[in-house]
Amino acid sequence: MSPVAEFDFVIVGAGSAGCLLANRLSANPDHRVLLIEAGGKDDWFWIKVPVGYLYTIANPRTDWCFTTEADPGLAGRSIVYARGRVLGGCSSINAMIHMRGQASDYELWAEATGDERWRWGGPDSAGETLTLYKGLEDYFGGADQWHGAGGEIAVERPRVRWKILDAWQAAAAQVGIAPIAEFNRGDNAGSAYFHVNQRRGRRWSMADAFLHPVAHRPNLTVYTHTQALQLLLADDVRDDQRHGAWTTAAHRATGVRVLKDGHIIDVQARREVILSAGAIGSPHLMQVSGLGPAGLLAQHQVPVAVDLPGVGENLQDHLQLRTVYRVQGARTVNTLYRNWITRAGMGLQYLLLRSGPMTMPPSTLGAFAKSDPALASPDLEWHVQPLSLPKFGESLHPYGAITPSVCNLRPSSRGHVRMADADPLSAPKIACNYLSTDADLQAAVRGLRMTRQIMAAPPLARYRPEELLPGPQLVSDDDLQQAARELGTTIFHPVGTCAMGAFDTRGLPRSATTVLDTDCRVYGVAGLRVADASAMPTITSGNTNAPVMLIAERAARAILG
């Protein structure tokens, strides 16, 4: 055991939320802040080049390389479950799509937490979500009623367009999905090219946005290649911490035990420990520390500090159904990549102009629609890619093709994250339970049928699209449900495993599965917060990085306020 290190705030996880929190908390020179990251620095070439996600995902240099438990909803398959393990976390390996979600998502958060501030906001609303988003942004078009300028998060237009995607957008319009300017105004119904977190054609991670500009601060320390092993707890709860979810706390978080350079160090936190290790890492660290479902802890001989049934439960994710259509006479990534001259041209275009296919996120064009006209807001989203491949990590198909992937934005299926044993270095068990409800199976069928309608529309006829997956021979609902099980894969949006919820006036949670209050404080453990995707009570409509930044900003203001 090496000597103890002491700080005011200890943040576990230098991903998107952790970078923002380190920035905000260290702005006061009187605060000594430690940021702990299990991975290394983000100075690798392929992190900064947008198409580098092909090399960073499923690479232990930058990814935890988790796999899920065999899932009945995926025809018994286990799938790769990428999570960032590097400065910037998932924002260093993700799709770079800037997506706030829809106003209706935050209505659900307000109802779950009893906090009106989560609402989207407007002339007749107490919500502050839109205002906070605007404050975080540096939007390419400047400040307006929807966007902010001068914030840390760069938001740009994509730097490449594709005629085949323009035709897909026109086809979508003919089946009622109209083109719109963008997806970040609260109602995403329509189709548009995604806005991206890039700056002049390079990935703009949350480490670029929040951590690197303040890394010189003498009161900010960053430990890389440092694994958090256990939360340190004490029984001496200070009176000034007894509020919110901490009102009835019997324990206080005093620090974190870490493994650094082969040595175990107990890092002390004078004020707070903040977990920003993500929807997989945060509940796992809590469980091995004695915070979680009592039955699970007892099963693995972990002493129960606080029985928190919701820790690791309520896992939600967007399941994408990757349909593939062969096309003719269209420029796609497949057709460009199979010729060494055009491959060289793509590289030269990027080096000289910071434009072209190498600036492309995994998905370029998106669309939102309702699977049922009676719904208040869209529940389906398409990510349309001008390429195709058998599965992620494999070579592109040797012919022109596109991949319109459709996902259910509001899945009712729920999974869980549970420790495999008491060893904090053992990977947790991740069970997603995709397509485990009739509602999710029905949404999958509707999404596949709507995709076929779009692909059959006249604007795409000149490209003679040919359905390869799931295949035109699959017609019945049963056929398409089975196809969804065989085609479905994660879009890497796990949330909800330490969910916020409402508390009564005595500081008691109204639901047994609630873990956090609206300020991200952990029930029963003073001085401990969780600020990351695991705090979401329900999943947002679309990519989850921007909503994580919203949560982190709210948590930082609560801590400092």
Automatic annotation (TrEMBL):
GO terms, molecular function: flavin adenine dinucleotide binding; oxidoreductase activity, acting on CH-OH group of donors
Gene3D superfamilies documented for this protein: FAD/NAD(P)-binding domain, Glucose Oxidase, domain 3
Residue ranges annotated for the Glucose-methanol-choline oxidoreductase N-terminal domain, each copy included: 278-292
Positions bound to FAD: 86
Alphabetized Pfam families for the sequence: GMC_oxred_C, GMC_oxred_N
SUPFAM superfamilies: FAD-linked reductases, C-terminal domain, FAD/NAD(P)-binding domain
InterPro entries, alphabetized: FAD/NAD-bd_sf, GMC_OxRdtase, GMC_OxRdtase_N, GMC_OxRtase_C
Claim: Flavoprotein is one of the keywords in the record: yes
Top-level taxon in the UniProt lineage: Bacteria
Keywords: FAD, Flavoprotein
Cofactor: FAD
Similarity remark: Belongs to the GMC oxidoreductase family.
Protein name: Choline dehydrogenase
Organism of provenance: Mycobacterium adipatum
